[in-house]
Amino acid sequence: MTFLLAVVLALGGGVALASQSSINGRLGDAAGVLETAWLTFVLGAAISFLLYFFFEPPHAMTLVTAPKWQLIGALFGVVYILVSVFAVPRVGIAAATVAVITGQLSMSLLIDHFGWLNNAAIPLSPTRYLSIALLAGAMALIYLGNRRRA
To answer: How many CA atoms does the CB half-sphere of 113 hold within 13 Å?
Structure first.
């Protein structure tokens, strides 16, 4: 049941990310990339604080005691938001999303394969190579579809 719940929540997160990228892309085109990113992070910080304050149970480690290299994950969130706000109006939501997912999957396969960032090593296999090829194919098909429409 926990696995199914995690998958359903992850799918919902994907729906939210695609929606956020689309909305932020339109806003970024009209109001500016940095202003849109700023708004995203200010509202996200306020909501996260409220969720933390009311719902977060105590943990063995805090942000102060966590290994400092783990704190750089927040910087990658900034990169993602800035890239999506910039890219969506220029290439469309589908092309931007599949490009992000292709990059995300490729990097996650490397992290798994080499066991980087304190993760268990899971070697590359033919099915994992196929997943990259299929995503690259999806990216190419979306790109070709965008070119035909333009």
So the answer is: 11
Instruction: Give the integer Cα–Cα distance in Å for 62 and 71.
Output: 11
Give the tens place of pLDDT for each residue, 24-57.
999 999 999 999 999 999 999 999 999 999 999 9
Q: What is the 3-state secondary structure (H, E, C) of 49-109?
A: HHHHHHHCCCCCCCCCCCCHHHHHHHHHHHHHHHHHHHHHHHHCHHHHHHHHHHHHHHHHH
Amino acid symbol at 55: F
State the Cα–Cα distance between residues 36 and 27, nearest whole angstrom: 6
Tell me how far apart the alpha carbons of residues 112 and 119 are, in angstroms, rounded to a whole number: 7
88 contacts 21 by C-beta, under 8 angstroms? yes
**What confidence tens digit (pLDDT) does each residue in 95-124 have?**
999 999 999 999 999 999 999 998 999 999
